[in-house]
Amino acid sequence: MEAKLLQSLHLTTWTGSDSVFPKPNNSMGLSTRFERKRRVNMLKCNLVQTVKPVTGRRASGLKVSCASQNSPASVLESETFTTEEDLVLKKKSEEIEPCLSGRCIYLVGMMGSGKTTIGQILAEVLGYSFFDSDKLIELSVGGTTVADIFKLHGEAFFRDNETEVLHKLSTMHRLVISTGGGAVVRPINWKYMHKGISVFIDVPLDALAQRLTAVGTASRPLLHHESGDAYTQTLKKLSKLWEVRSEAYSNAQVRVSLERIAAKLGHGDVCCVNPTQIAIEALIQIEDYLKK
């Protein structure tokens, strides 16, 4: 499958994944999914032929980057899969993986919601490959950053290439895809994402503002703000984006609410919820959706 994917998207592996993901503790009796050689979840791509930079009318969509750089340590960063949460994650992934029938999983949500971190965890435990759509767009235009694409070419150019990337990925199987925050505003993108299973990572805006303020917003073209308190300005910008996107996020087939997870775990603050716990909840909600 992976060879087909690489051939279709003209992708080549970036580095051996043994240097990226830790080897499990064999004494735990983990499944062969954890014992097989790790495949790279971040792939270098040359999309010049199959996903060419495209131009078109300006879309109404808004762009954000999706990685949360200050997320708590996850199962991918630990030396062994030893915690109770890791075992729950492994068990749930083994239960749900056959039911997916190879369908892709698309993670949607506001910037800073942790889609990249959660996506990497889900891809690893399900034996899927991981893609960050923003990174693919950057590579398709010669490695230009999202911020520079907005500055040099405008948002419409970015949105057109985002749609083309999602179109190509929708023809594949066994992928977890982290999408940009604004991918949801174009109906055509939902057509592609609904070929798989779309999962909305729902994080309160104040928590997002805290996280984004802590890591900085220089790489996020839609969060540039004037002088003043950084948190207040970031929350204000996020609130405006939410007004535009909230209805679109409701198109997701699965919703993963951090407030709900925090309540279940007895946490008073959603910031106490770690990526492994979010990944577990995502698998539970996906399983419930598949049972409908």
TrEMBL record:
<keyword id="KW-0808">Transferase</keyword>
<dbReference type="GO" id="GO:0009073">
    <property type="term" value="P:aromatic amino acid family biosynthetic process"/>
</dbReference>
<dbReference type="Pfam" id="PF01202">
    <property type="entry name" value="SKI"/>
</dbReference>
<dbReference type="InterPro" id="IPR000623">
    <property type="entry name" value="Shikimate_kinase/TSH1"/>
</dbReference>
<comment type="pathway">
    <text>Metabolic intermediate biosynthesis; chorismate biosynthesis; chorismate from D-erythrose 4-phosphate and phosphoenolpyruvate: step 5/7.</text>
</comment>
<comment type="similarity">
    <text>Belongs to the shikimate kinase family.</text>
</comment>
<dbReference type="GO" id="GO:0005524">
    <property type="term" value="F:ATP binding"/>
</dbReference>
<dbReference type="InterPro" id="IPR023000">
    <property type="entry name" value="Shikimate_kinase_CS"/>
</dbReference>
<keyword id="KW-0547">Nucleotide-binding</keyword>
<dbReference type="InterPro" id="IPR027417">
    <property type="entry name" value="P-loop_NTPase"/>
</dbReference>
<keyword id="KW-0028">Amino-acid biosynthesis</keyword>
<dbReference type="GO" id="GO:0008652">
    <property type="term" value="P:amino acid biosynthetic process"/>
</dbReference>
<keyword id="KW-0057">Aromatic amino acid biosynthesis</keyword>
<keyword id="KW-0418">Kinase</keyword>
<protein>
    <recommendedName>
        <fullName>shikimate kinase</fullName>
        <ecNumber>2.7.1.71</ecNumber>
    </recommendedName>
</protein>
<comment type="function">
    <text>Catalyzes the specific phosphorylation of the 3-hydroxyl group of shikimic acid using ATP as a cosubstrate.</text>
</comment>
<dbReference type="GO" id="GO:0009423">
    <property type="term" value="P:chorismate biosynthetic process"/>
</dbReference>
<keyword id="KW-0067">ATP-binding</keyword>
<dbReference type="InterPro" id="IPR031322">
    <property type="entry name" value="Shikimate/glucono_kinase"/>
</dbReference>
<dbReference type="GO" id="GO:0004765">
    <property type="term" value="F:shikimate kinase activity"/>
</dbReference>
<dbReference type="GO" id="GO:0009507">
    <property type="term" value="C:chloroplast"/>
</dbReference>
